Amino acid sequence: MGTLYLVRHGQASFGADDYDQLSARGRQQAQRLGEYWRERGLVFDTVLVGSLRRHAQTLEGISAGLQGLAAPVITLPGLNEYDSHALLTAIHPQPLPKPDTPELFRQHFRLLCDALAQWMAGVISPHGMPSWDEFSAGVHAALERVRHEHAGQNVLLVSSGGPISTAIGQVLGSTPEATIALNMRIRNSAVTEFSTSPKRLMLQTFNALNHLDSDAHRDWVTYA
């Protein structure tokens, strides 16, 4: 029996022109996760990572904390996040105000959840995005790769909240509504674990931040 460690990227640049860039806090979160694993002697056999910049930067931080990562790294675009801007534009063509207040922040994510539900149901086709079935198939292919090629190994997967919640939904057979709710709860640098075998994957932990569970790091917890 092996373990698949699914890691959401560190804090990115929410509200900036270029979201796909870790903040200084995001880099700290990623490096701290690597340090935590090094302290516990965890060694990875294989690494799967999306092709977005924030995924690569998160993996760099983890590697720095581990003081080196000898495992082969496989880049899979199927682990990339959905385009939240395209989703929002599909249901709200008019420009939205910058979500720089608590109420505008909540409004942003209410609209995003609505757009996700419509995309998953096939009601909207956001510009430049795959269909939900295509997006889901990319995540499924990554999980099947682990099950068939890396069962019995420690596998690190670095991605985003959308693909990770989709993976959980596939393993648990969750409804679209439950998958969206999971997506909205996944914190930056949080770890979700699946036990792996050639026959199946099973959820062991969800959204864990053990590496930040100390007085020195508790204020490092972020969501966006």
TrEMBL record:
CDD domains per record: HP_PGM_like
UniProt cross-references to Pfam families, sorted A to Z: His_Phos_1 (PF00300)
Keywords: Hydrolase
Name this protein carries in UniProt: Histidine phosphatase family protein
Superkingdom: Bacteria
Entry annotated with the keyword Hydrolase: yes
